[in-house]
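User: I'm preparing a small set of examples for a lab meeting where we compare how different chains pack in three dimensions. I only have the primary sequence for this one, and I'd like the structure in token form so I can line it up with the others. Please keep the answer compact; I'll paste it straight into my notes.
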Amino acid sequence: MMPINQQNKPNILLIVSDQHRYDCMGAYGNPDIRTPYLDALSEDGVTYKNSFCSSPFCTPSRYSLLTGLYPHQHLGWGNLSTIPSGIATFPKLLQLAGYRTKAVGKMHLTPTYLDVGFDDMILAEQNGDGRYEDDYHRYLMEQGLLDRLDLMDQVKEYREKAPPSYWDTFGTEASNLSEEHHSTTWIGNQALTAIENWGTHNEMLMVSFIKPHHPFDPPVPWSSMYNPAELHLLPGWTDQPLERDLRMHPGFFEHTRLTEEKLRRTMTHYYGAISHIDHMTGQFVEALKRKGIYDNTLVIYTSDHGEYMGYHHMLLKSNYMYEPLAKVPLLVKYPGGVNAGECSDQLINNIDISTTILAAAGVNKDKSMVGINLMSSEEQGREFIIGEDSRGRQYMVRSERYKLILTRDHSKCVFFDLQNDPLELNNLIDDPDYEEHITRCRHALQQTLLFDAPSPSYLDRNAPIITGNRVPNDSTVRKRVSEWIAGNWNTEDGFVDKNRELR
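Assistant: Understood. Below is the structure token output for the 503-residue chain.
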């Protein structure tokens, strides 16, 4: 790609959703879902057809996006983990270069307000300590509101009290919150305010939505936007789960209980959540255009990992790094309209995003960062994509045609010829005709890991956090929010609102 003009450094808007399956967007060929604003962003930028996450779980993937490192390098292996304070991140490097940096939404860090280089953080978290410390749930408490289904889905003590309807619907129903108070709207509005306040500084904003991550609970009217009978099932649906998949993991919701009827209903809410995010994305773009800065803003849309949504008769994640889980959408609108409307088949890992952002800003990446600059025609692309899960629970090695997934148990290892088997049904791990290709994939993994793995998972609850008026400075806020939630919980219907009637 052509280099951009560095005389006028661009503003940067990075939009990250959670658990967005790559083909659930019009720009990726989905005939049913309505994503007009993301599709328009695709027309203004480059659509990457082969973009992958470095880990199929939220926090490790997000740390990789921030650091340009694989999980075995940044040590943030799990959803409860920290990265060492000495590791460089693209927000820290932008800070040093004079950018104002801000994060809005779900970051999934430990501690909640971990200093990874943002001047300001307005957070809306989903589980862990973050739910009891973040700005969004303190806001809900002040309004006398509770995100009932999300709480049941994400917090074990409330999930154990969940009514049968929660399990029967696979966590799919309209939110008890109105659109105004739903996390997607709240995050979007906070981000919109931040964009409206952009001035003469070089600005970087990371907007991170909680959704469409389960539970699948968009608010009205997004929950009723789609008719289940009119939807096409996504590629990969099978009448029954595969035996090897059940051996790997039976499912957060039992995969054997999933039916086509229940899947279609889940798809309507999943699509509704994505369309809601699309709507907010459209408002960001409109704000940039009103301010006259859209052309000189680097806009990126991606997700931390995918979602099965019926693939091999499964929902959610926690199984093999199949295509719908490992592959994520990636739209990049470069400043100056560079390469607008192009589609790229280049193999991309989310460790490349930090390098690309820094290059657009004219900032040198840290020498530890291993990602490539997507704007550069001089940097050599990669032959293999590497994905890592839970300190070696499984590793994925994917080339343009082949995919190897290694586990500690050889009987669970799989190898696919994606050209002849795009739905990953036929395991060729013991087929002698593919021995050479399997060996090449193994060698690529060894070259990536070198002497780094297995590395420990790092956790430091006392790591440095940012400062600010909204940042809790002790445990009293967490205790107060936790007690308020517990005091407003009713085991029969999940929630009783003492102050108002909720929709």
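A couple of notes for your slides: Residues 260-290 form the longest helix (31 residues). The chain has two domains: 11-383+456-487, 393-452.

User: Perfect, thanks.
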